[in-house]
Write a structure and sequence with these properties.
This protein is an alpha/beta fold. It has 15 helices and 17 strands. Strand 7 and strand 8 form a beta hairpin. The radius of gyration is 31 Å and the shape is elongated. The protein binds adenosine-5'-diphosphate and magnesium ion. The site of magnesium ion has 3 residues, from helix 3.
Length: about 500
């Protein structure tokens, strides 16, 4: 059925059309001309009547003309004009944008289900449905290595999107690692969860990494030399113990630091290293290390890459860690995952086997770890993953409700984006500036999205899509708190404790 016709001059990006149908905003249409079959999206709708145009200055005349509408024997002349954004040529195997504009008079028709599926359902993983349609939106996982940012205001559906994505990747046999800032995934009913204890084995740290954790700056050469020297002697002493058959690993961060401190003292007594002040400084920093990182230091912890499981959602629960410990842990894990990706690649090139596999790493509350300005260790490793991960099968997914607080360099390297509702103008502008494939008209729509509705751009989709993300069919730990229910439960608990107390005191009276 013909819905309308192109009028006025069109270009290869958009066309104006006139119609008597009630075409709605955000719906799709097809324009066929000169061998092209172009899918268009309606981005603007206006209605008018030549009898009541903007030049009318007589209110009585306007009323008399308007009364014609209720007179069924007269046909009231009315029209709708629509702005159609030309998305892609369906006759082109690469679904490129048309390079010839539609001529005036080109008819508009409804797309068939097959035509919509050809564009939106050609991926491997279902994320949801096109808004206002039953067409599935499926994403192409091979392009996830170009990384992904999931951005939206709080409560708009980011965690739900992460849960749907992770669960389905694991069902397809892939591996996801979620850094679970709020402990919402580890306490969820997601299938295939492999919990990973947030532990850091100091033996796997490089001297430089260790120096950064204890706040020895890049330019503090003497402090670094002292630390590197005791760090190496400590490792040598363990090696020696191992050879002798009785390796005594420190059982806590405190014990570890005590052993390092005694090494500093022996070395400074023998007059080898640094002035008194510098040595004292290093000792202080070691003590701070024991205080700050006692929750995550574990000399028996397995390497994170040996704990990752294929076909599972590997969840690292960060909820009980303070910011410094989180920072240390996330940066160290990112480094190990990237390094293993590299080893796998070079082993593959040499025809050797290696038991590491591609991994999708999800970083929740990314603005905390990757802030704009300033340099953090997580930022260093995340940038490296963003730059090099693609070659080594490591994809990064960053999730944030404060896009403008994110490092712009990293954000612009997340070439795929799933953006849910955002109202804040500076956030919208910032996202627009950091994305080549997100146009202004799409960003405009962000404020009017409902919960779970999202715009997807980037190579994971053939063309930008506005979709309703599926609802995760389970429970996430971080859903909006049931505040009334919590009050009622607290009251009931208190009442039952009081009753027990009363009963006990009655027994006492007997
Ligand atoms: N696609 C969706 N369909 C239906 N409900 C959703 C959808 N996405 C989120 N919700 C609901 O909205 C609420 C907030 O979602 P959540 O994913 O926690 O948001 P965010 O992580 O952005 O703060 C939850 O109660 C969730 O169940
Ligand atoms: Mg969330």
């Amino acid at each position: 059925m013909v819905l309308g016709h192109v009028i006025d001059e069109a270009d290869t990006i958009s066309a104006l059309a006139i119609t008597s149908s009630k075409l709605k905003l955000g719906t799709y249409t097809i324009l066929e001309y000169d061998g092209y079959r172009v899918l268009g999206l309606i981005t603007k709708v206006s209605r008018g009547s030549p009898l009541l145009n903007g030049s009318i200055r007589d209110p009585d005349a306007a009323e008399r003309i308007s009364n014609m509408r209720s007179n069924s024997s007269l046909k009231f002349p009315e029209y709708t004009t629509v702005r159609v954004k030309l998305l892609c040529n369906l006759n082109d195997p690469d679904l490129l944008q048309p390079d010839l504009p539609p001529p005036p008079g080109t008819p508009l028709r409804e797309p068939t289900d097959d035509e919509l599926s050809q564009v939106f359902s050609n991926g491997d993983l279902r994320l949801g449905k096109l808004v206002g349609s039953d067409t599935e939106v499926r994403i192409r996982l091979r392009y996830l290595t170009r990384h992904l940012a999931i951005l939206a205001a709080t409560g708009s559906g980011k965690s739900n999107t992460v849960a749907v994505l992770s669960q389905r990747i694991s069902e397809l046999g892939g591996a996801v690692v979620i850094f679970d800032y709020h402990g919402e995934y580890s306490t969820s009913t997601m299938k295939n969860i492999n919990p990973i204890q947030p532990k850091l084995n100091p033996l796997r740290l490089t001297a430089r990494e260790f120096a950064t954790f204890i706040n020895i700056r890049e330019n503090a050469f003497v402090q670094y030399r002292i630390l590197r020297s005791i760090w190496n002697s400590f490792k040598e002493s363990l090696e020696k113990e191992k050879k002798e058959g009785e390796m005594k690993l420190p059982s806590s961060a405190q014990e570890f630091v005590e052993r390092l401190k005694s090494l500093v003292e022996t070395q400074s007594e023998s007059g080898k290293k640094g002035s008194k002040d510098t040595v004292a400084e290093v000792l202080n920093k070691l003590e701070d290390f024991a205080d700050t990182y006692s929750s995550i230091v574990d000399f028996n912890a397995k390497d994170v890459v040996d704990q990752l499981k294929l076909g599972q959602v590997n969840v690292v629960d960060l909820i009980n860690l303070d910011e410094e410990a989180m920072e240390a842990l996330v940066s160290h894990y990112l480094r190990r995952i990237l390094e293993n990706g590299k080893l796998t690649k070079s082993a593959k090139l040499r025809g050797e086997s290696h038991n590491f596999f591609p991994v999708v790493v999800v970083l929740e509350e990314a603005h905390v770890f990757l802030p704009r300005g300033g340099s953090t260790l997580v930022k260093f490793w995340a940038s490296k993953v963003a730059r090099e991960g693609r070659k080594f099968g490591v994809s990064l997914v960053i999730v944030s409700q404060r896009p403008k607080g994110l490092d712009d360099n990293i954000l612009s390297q997340m070439t795929n984006k799933i953006v849910l509702k955002i109202v804040e103008p500076t956030d919208k502008r910032y996202i627009l500036e950091s994305s080549d494939n997100l146009s202004e008209d799409l960003v405009e729509q962000l404020s009017s999205l409902n919960t779970g509705q999202a715009i997807v751009v980037g190579k994971i989709v053939s063309i930008p899509a506005i979709l309703q993300v599926d609802k995760f069919d389970g429970i996430l730990g971080g859903s909006d708190p049931d505040i009334l229910g919590d009050w009622r439960r607290a009251r009931e608990e208190r009442e039952s404790t009081l009753q027990v107390g009363r009963r006990i005191s009655q027994i006492g009276d007997l």
